[in-house]
């Protein structure tokens, strides 16, 4: 498992774009929003938690189709499937690698982007924590979606259509936690529910991912 | 599936009968609601279609589970056949809801938890149908959509609860939500029941017909494969 | 060690092969022959467990088989050594650099996978088989894009290092590898559509 994680991280670093592209996209979303809704600080303050969460979600979505596509094309996915490493573990590792290369940088960058949207100062901690808890779920759900569409030629758009509805609960609890934080309310309930969803995703989806990969490799 | 041949015309006829009786009774022979006036009568379309939108998904889930466990081919095709019917039911429910909502709440759309849940259900249907359409090999498509349906069901339920949580965070209570069944009087209740029966029968008839079509298509494919060989 | 009895397999929902049976003991190899489309790749994928068999049984010791397809599974951004070391680690082994010489890759050890020629990639893909140390190999056209010298080198490795040490190989190939192995023509095992239990036939 560690070998696969090391390899995937090395590939993400070398091929370039793994870290940078998602972050740049996130920044652009955050920059575009004030152009759309106007520069009034009070409007931006109110919508900042939602924009940051939706932006992070879309940035994570951007790199999903690369999770399995390259391995599928060059044949290493079939070789992995016949190796002693269970595909369940491979799915888990792929999700982890995706989180380290996209979810984690997005989490760390989000508070910086919060300044651009003049977010409430009380919300920064909640933004960091909710993204830290929530983005692993985004990666795991996305890995499942990527496995579903891996055999398809034009899977990218379909992948978004399949994955976005699955992101709804994560987005709701994540953004809700930040909103409550911004309003100075207790945000522990959405954070706990968010953690529950993430834990549930990692408990169930590796198996679904492996099942789907086996079908696609048939 | 040969038993469906005699059943099919009867289920269509019964569905038509129930819908005509239920709708005519509901539209013309029930009194106006003292508070809502005649707008309440859209209930005869709204409630049955909303009910069937959810039931169609449950039927797809059951059929998917049967396919995954027993590998019964008809069940995979039945799930495929039900999806477009389900999506139309969801759309009818959303549109009739909007039409009802305009005079009642002063708006066609509100981010009420119930409405939002249906919109999310609609997205799940779209994803499911798109995946079926995208995959060429029918068995691969059946397997993948079955797993999507099972995983999607879990997330659909999660979304529903998440949406209720989310809305409580925004509004104080759900003053917009109108729970029809609780405050429906008997005069409205019986035609409503007949309409629901009509929608159920219509759903069964449509799914049977579509499943038969799917089976025929697969049979043609198998015969063509055999013909090419001979 | 490898027993195949009455195996039937399908491609894209249609049965292609039926009643394939053979037995291989340690040290034996089998060459699969037959025209394009007869089902050599399908048979190898079924043996490797990538797709379910329609009928019949395959018995072999657990955790002993490896599969090599048309695609080599080479990561273009990793060097030759890194590619091989990765597979060694996945199989829980340590990478032995002597294998590089065996497959004439020693000079290329620090080159990135993407800069290799087709034949060099193929050699790297075959070197993976030596790295992972599996006893039973299912090889699908292992010599594609290899020159005659490399084919001889691969055949030598297969004969001297793999088969001689109790390994087994099932190889689909159109050329003569020059190793001591019987050939199995798959043409007689071809399954007529509508008779082998492919999935579309469930509707007839």
Tell the overall outline of chain A.
elongated
Sheet with the most strands of chain B?
A: none
> Low-confidence spans of chain B: pLDDT under 50, at least 5 residues?
169-178
DSSP, total strands of chain B = 0
**How much is the radius of gyration of chain A in Å?**
18 Å
CATH arch. level architecture of chain B: Up-down Bundle
Low-pLDDT parts of chain A are: none
Helix coverage percent of residues of chain A? over 70%
Structural class of chain B: mainly alpha
Principal-axis shape of chain B: flat
* Overall mean confidence score, pLDDT of chain B: 83
Report strand % of chain B.
under 5%
CATH first level of chain B:
Mainly Alpha
- Our measurement of the CA-to-CA distance between the termini of chain B, rounded to an integer number of angstroms, reads 28 Å
Characterization of this structure:
The complex is a heterotrimer of chains A (218), B (230) and C (204). Helices cover 83% and strands 0% of the residues of chain A. Chain A is built from 10 helices and no strands. In chain A, helix 6 packs antiparallel against helix 7 and helix 7 (123-148) packs parallel to helix 10 (188-217). The model of chain A has no long low-confidence stretch (mean pLDDT 90). Chain B has 230 residues and is mainly alpha-helical. In chain B, 80% of the residues lie in helices and 0% in strands. Chain B has helices at residues 4-28, 43-70, 73-105, 113-134, 138-170, 186-229. In chain B, helix 1 runs antiparallel to helix 6 (186-229), helix 2 (43-70) runs antiparallel to helix 3 (73-105) and helix 2 runs parallel beside helix 6. The longest helix of chain B has 44 residues, at 186-229. The model of chain B is unreliable at 169-178 (pLDDT under 50). With 204 residues, chain C is an alpha/beta fold. Chain C contains 5 helices and 8 strands. Chain C has helices at 40-47, 80-90, 98-102, 118-132, 148-162; strands at 2-11, 14-24, 29-33, 55-59, 65-68, 136-140, 168-172, 183-185. In chain C, the strands form 2 sheets. Chain C has a 5-stranded parallel sheet, with helices on both faces. A 3-stranded antiparallel sheet of chain C has the order 2-1-4, with helices on one face. In chain C, helix 5 links the parallel strand 6 and strand 7 (168-172). In chain C, helix 2 (80-90) packs parallel to helix 4 (118-132). The mean pLDDT of chain C is 86. Chain A binds chain B through residues 144, 148-149, 151-152, 154-155, 158, 161-162, 164-166, 168-169, 172-173, 176, 179-180, 190, 193, 197, 204-205, 208, 211-212, 215-216, 218, and chain B through 120, 123-124, 126-127, 130-131, 134-135, 140, 143-144, 147-148, 150-152, 154-156, 158-159, 161-163, 165-166, 169.
């Amino acid at each position: 498992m560690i070998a696969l994680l090391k390899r995937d991280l090395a590939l993400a670093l070398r091929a370039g774009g793994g870290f940078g592209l998602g972050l740049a996209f996130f920044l652009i979303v955050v920059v575009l929003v004030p152009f759309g809704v106007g520069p009034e600080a009070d409007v931006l303050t109110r919508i900042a938690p939602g924009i940051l969460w939706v932006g992070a979600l879309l940035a994570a979505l951007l790199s999903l189709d690369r999770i399995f596509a390259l391995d599928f094309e060059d044949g290493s996915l079939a070789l992995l499937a016949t190796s002693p490493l269970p595909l369940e573990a491979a799915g888990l590792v792929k999700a982890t690698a995706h989180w380290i290369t996209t979810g984690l940088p997005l989490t760390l960058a989000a508070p910086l982007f919060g300044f651009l949207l003049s977010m409430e100062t009380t919300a920064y901690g909640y933004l960091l924590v909710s993204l830290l808890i929530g983005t692993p779920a985004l990666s795991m759900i996305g890995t499942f979606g990527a496995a579903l569409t891996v055999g398809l030629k034009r899977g990218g758009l379909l992948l978004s259509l399949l994955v976005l509805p699955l992101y709804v609960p994560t987005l709701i609890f994540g953004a809700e936690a930040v909103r409550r934080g911004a309003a100075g309310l207790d945000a522990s309930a959405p954070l706990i529910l968010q953690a529950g969803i993430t834990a549930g995703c990692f408990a169930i989806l590796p198996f679904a991912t492996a099942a789907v990969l086996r079908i696609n490799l048939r | 599936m040969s038993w469906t041949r005699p059943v099919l015309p009867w289920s269509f006829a019964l569905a038509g009968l129930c819908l005509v009786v239920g709708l005519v009774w509901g539209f013309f022979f029930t009194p106006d609601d003292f508070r809502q006036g005649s707008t309440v009568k859209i209930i005869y379309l709204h409630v049955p279609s909303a009910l069937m939108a959810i039931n169609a998904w449950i039927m797809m889930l059951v059929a998917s589970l049967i396919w995954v466990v027993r590998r019964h081919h008809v069940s995979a095709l039945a799930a495929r056949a039900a999806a477009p019917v389900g999506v139309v039911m969801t759309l009818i429910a959303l549109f009739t809801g909007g039409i009802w909502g305009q005079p009642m709440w002063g708006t066609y759309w509100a981010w009420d938890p119930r409405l939002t849940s249906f919109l999310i259900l609609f997205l799940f249907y779209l994803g499911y149908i798109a995946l079926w359409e995208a995959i060429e090999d029918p068995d691969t498509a059946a397997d993948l959509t079955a797993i999507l349906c099972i995983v999607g069901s879990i997330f659909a339920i999660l979304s529903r609860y998440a949406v209720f949580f989310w809305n409580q965070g925004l509004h104080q209570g759900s003053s917009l939500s109108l729970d029809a069944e609780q405050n429906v009087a008997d005069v409205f209740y019986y035609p409503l029941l007949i309409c629901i029966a009509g929608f159920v029968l219509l759903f069964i008839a449509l799914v049977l017909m579509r499943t038969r079509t799917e089976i025929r298509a697969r049979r043609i494919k198998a015969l063509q494969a055999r013909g090419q060989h001979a | 060690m490898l027993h195949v009895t009455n195996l039937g397999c399908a491609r894209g929902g249609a049965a292609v092969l039926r009643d394939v049976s053979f037995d291989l003991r340690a040290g034996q190899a089998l060459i699969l022959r037959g025209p394009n489309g007869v089902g050599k790749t399908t048979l190898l994928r079924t043996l490797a467990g990538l797709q379910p068999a329609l009928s019949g049984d395959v018995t072999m010791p657990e955790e002993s088989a490896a599969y090599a397809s048309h695609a080599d599974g080479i990561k273009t951004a990793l060097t030759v050594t890194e590619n091989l070391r990765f597979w060694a680690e996945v199989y829980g082994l340590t990478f032995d650099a002597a294998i590089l010489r065996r497959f004439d890759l020693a000079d290329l050890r620090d080159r990135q996978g993407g800069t290799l020629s087709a034949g060099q990639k193929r050699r790297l893909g075959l070197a993976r088989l030596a790295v992972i140390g599996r006893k039973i190999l299912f090889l699908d056209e292992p010599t594609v894009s290899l020159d005659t010298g490399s084919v001889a080198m691969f055949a030598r490795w297969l004969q001297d290092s793999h088969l001689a040490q109790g390994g087994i190989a099932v190889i689909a190939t159109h050329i003569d590898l020059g190793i001591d192995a019987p050939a199995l023509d798959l043409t007689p095992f071809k399954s007529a559509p509508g008779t082998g239990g492919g999935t579309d036939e469930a509707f007839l």
